[in-house]
Task: inverse folding
């Protein structure tokens, strides 16, 4: 290797040799110990999944229970459109926001659990 | 006799044996860290953080490992995804080419020692795609197919990135 370092070699060989040498072994230097230490801190994926799923399920049930009937929401929007009064849009917007948040949270859980 | 990757994965997956996983980390920390270092343009501290996150994710997802590809290929896929997530968080674009700057003219022909020192600098001027493909195939010795799988891109893209990256390196290193 030292010989190579002190001599000029053919262009293609130089690049190949350089690239191979730059991919040399990196000593562990405590890296594995660091990973293992972190493992013990994050070793609760199943509990985490269960808690998040249960929370999302409870939120969904509460939302469905709390949401006013669709006809009522439609009437409110229609009234808002016809009168130009913005307050009629508040409840439908709140409902939409709550549903979107729950859906987003559920998607996030699914994505995190299937992410590689 | 040393346990195979498959045996260690089984132990880690079925029994949740951290020692088995530790052995896998010991085996593959070097190629994973080396690859991520290339991707972070030599930022060893950031690279080690990303590599550590990748190993932690690998531990959490080890039950999803299908032995269609080697364990290292699977690990490098996770590491590459972690790097991409990190790059996204830092609002960097993944395939952004850095403007090539002209090399100082008039230098004498470089020796291998000079070139080795310049290579790290030259690698920083490759796009992420080129650096990743060269890092995996020319430095880690993986096949083009394995690199395509890790980088989640077509085989042709890997080949093009290697060709283009090597050409850029040659130009910058004047070899």
Result:
């Amino acid at each position: 290797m030292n010989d190579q370092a002190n001599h000029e070699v053919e262009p293609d060989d130089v690049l190949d040799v350089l690239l191979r040498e730059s991919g040399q072994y990196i000593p562990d230097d405590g890296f594995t110990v660091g990973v293992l230490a972190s493992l013990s801190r994050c070793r609760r994926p199943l509990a985490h999944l269960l808690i998040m799923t249960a929370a999302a399920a409870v939120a969904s049930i509460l939302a469905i229970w709390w949401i006013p009937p669709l006809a009522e929401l439609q009437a409110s929007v229609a009234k808002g459109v016809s009168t130009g009064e913005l307050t009629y849009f508040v409840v439908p917007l709140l409902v939409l926001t709550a549903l979107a948040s729950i859906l987003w949270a559920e998607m996030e859980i699914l994505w995190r659990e299937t992410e590689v | 006799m040393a346990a195979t990757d498959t045996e260690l994965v089984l132990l880690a997956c079925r029994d949740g044996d951290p020692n088995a996983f530790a052995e896998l980390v010991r085996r593959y920390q070097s190629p994973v860290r080396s690859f991520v270092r290339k991707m972070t343009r030599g930022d060893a501290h950031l690279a080690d953080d990303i590599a550590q996150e990748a190993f932690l994710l690998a531990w959490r997802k080890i039950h999803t490992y299908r032995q269609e590809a080697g364990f290292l290929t699977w690990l490098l896929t996770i590491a590459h995804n972690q790097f991409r997530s990190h790059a996204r968080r830092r609002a960097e674009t993944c395939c952004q080419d850095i403007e090539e700057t002209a090399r100082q003219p008039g230098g004498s022909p470089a020796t291998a020692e000079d070139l080795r020192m310049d290579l790290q600098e030259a690698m920083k001027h490759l796009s992420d795609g080129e650096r990743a493909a060269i890092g995996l195939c020319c430095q880690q010795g993986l096949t083009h197919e394995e690199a395509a799988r890790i980088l989640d891109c077509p085989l042709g893209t890997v080949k093009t990135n290697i060709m283009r990256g090597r050409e850029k390196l040659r130009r910058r290193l004047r070899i």
In short: The helical segments of chain A are 2-5, 11-22, 31-42, 45-66, 70-83, 90-114. Chain A has one domain: 2-114. Chain A is about 75% helix and 0% strand. The CA atoms of residues 16 and 22 of chain A lie 10 Å apart.
